[in-house]
Amino acid sequence: QVQLVESGGGLVQAGESLRLSCAASGNIFRIDIMGWYRQAPGKQRELVARITSGGNTIYADSVKGRFTISRDNAKNTLYLQMNSLKSEDTAVYYCNAEKWYGSAWQTYWGQGTQVTVSS
Question: Is the pLDDT of residue 31 over 90?
């Protein structure tokens, strides 16, 4: 099992920045992919950014150039630096981890952290 705990959410003004953190614990050896997803009220959960164990990244078009995902393997922590925040970035942000167990993927989720951007 892998446990994920997010922190760093809050209320900010448009144009400001926030950094989200996700601390991983448990059976964290060789977590292959980690990512951030978000879910706004009335909308489906969507991918924000993902990063592989090798450092390859993918971003949603809506956050490219504004958000940066990174992982510190020594600290077992995933980060999301969010700059130039917009009201449409308001959502609950979830940390995600995917681990390959040799025959199947297992997906883990954190409890989520609220990000509210006021315009």
Answer: no
Distance CA 119, CA 14 (A): 5
Cβ(30)–Cβ(99) under 8 Å? yes
Checking if the pLDDT of 29 tops 80, the result is no
DSSP string covering the chain: -EEEEEE--EEEETT--EEEEEEEEES-TT--EEEEEEE-TTS--EEEEEEETT--EEE-TTTTTTEEEEEETTTTEEEEEE-S--GGG-EEEEEEEEEE-SSSEEEEE---EEEEEE-
> Which residues does residue 50 pair with via DSSP β-bridges, in sequence order?
35, 58
b/e map of 3-38 (b: 16 or more CB within 10 Å)? ebebebbeebeeeeebebbbbbeeebeebebbbbbb
Cβ pair 39, 91 in contact under 8 A: yes
